Amino acid sequence: MKKIPLIFFVAMTLSCAVINQLNLLTPEQEVELGRQASREVERSVRLYRDPLVRAYIDSLGQALVRVSARSQFRYYFKVVDAPEVNAFALPGGFIYVNLGLIKAAETESELAGVIGHEIGHVEMHHGAKKISQQYGVAVLVDVISGSGDPSLKRKVIAQLVGFGGGLGVLRYGREAERESDAFAVRCMVNARVDPEGIARFFETLLKLHKREPKGVEGWFATHPPTQSRIDFVRSEIAKLPNTSGLKKTSARFEQIRARVLRR
Ligand SMILES: [Zn+2]
User: Fold this and answer.
1) By residue range, what is the domain housing residue 84?
2) C-alpha–C-alpha distance, residues 174 and 127, integer Å
3) Taking a C-beta distance cutoff of 8 angstroms, is the pair 87, 111 a contact?
4) 6, 156, 179, 251: most buried, per Cβ within 10 A?
């Protein structure tokens, strides 16, 4: 058998690694694609209209965005009137938080951890990278401008929304989930919110899963809260100086949570 030069394998591995990291869209294209997908989302879910709850989620999200620095996106945080414990992000800064998630979080830092994680997906372009690798930039440019095949456009948007909706697949892949967890840790420390909330929320989910598996199924499919993930978050926290004395919760969170639990 002829020996295949080692350099060939090295080159192949390198090019795959590079392709995995590639985002072929400009920020403007990402925003436009996200906006079109968000319209689709908002046609199919019911948004929660309580202005106090909406304002709270928006202010919590915007506070995290402010410290995550250099964001090129304008963020929109919206509350979905759905009981499942879930949150998702679309490219370009459109983030949706289910009412079930606000009810499930036991402290503000748990809720902030999930929102920080979703901001991480946006900031690291996970959705745009995945979709641009799959379809190529030419197809996406047609989708964005509305000049392409409408059925293909529906497919692309459905897939983006599917990543967002967490329909039974590990949408961005394990590595991206870790990247987003690490992002959330740093983002929370910068916002002076206790990043331990991320690990505690995973523990809260594990408890919920034992008690009521149906309400957290989607979450388990897309963001499995495994022990190794909890350990990873804690190891990221341990790398940072000055993580003691950070905010675990707030009176406003308690009020909002009591309000949503009453309904
Ligand atoms: Zn995720």
Assistant:
1) 23-262
2) 13
3) no
4) 156
What is the distance in A from the centroid of ligand 1 to the CA of 71? Answer: 18
Neighbours of ion ligand 1 (CB under 5 A): 177, 223
Distance of CA 138 from the midpoint of ligand 1 (Å): 27
In a domain, 235, yes or no: yes
Q: How far is the CA of 161 from the centre of ligand 1 (A)?
A: 14
Running along the chain, 263 residues long, what does each successive block of 10 average in pLDDT? 45 40 85 93 93 98 89 94 90 95 96 95 91 87 86 85 54 85 95 96 86 75 77 95 91 97 89
Query: What's the CA-to-centroid distance between 227 and ligand 1, angstroms?
Result: 16
Q: Give the pLDDT of residue 71.
A: 81
Residue 104 within any structural domain of the chain: yes
Q: 3-class DSSP state for residue 5?
A: coil
- Would 166 be classed as within a structural domain? yes
Q: 90 and 120 in contact (C-beta within 8 Å)?
A: no
Q: How many domains are there within the chain? A: 1
Q: Is the sign of the CA dihedral 71, 220, 260, 253 positive or negative? A: negative
pLDDT at 5: 47
Q: Give Cα separations from 109 to 127, 157, 179, 190 (angstroms).
A: 25, 32, 19, 13
What's the pLDDT score for residue 21? 63
In a domain, 41, yes or no: yes
pLDDT value at position 139?
A: 87
Residue 67: CB atoms within 10 A of its CB come to 16
Query: Partners of 79 in the beta sheet?
Result: 97
Q: Is the pTM of this model over 0.90?
A: no
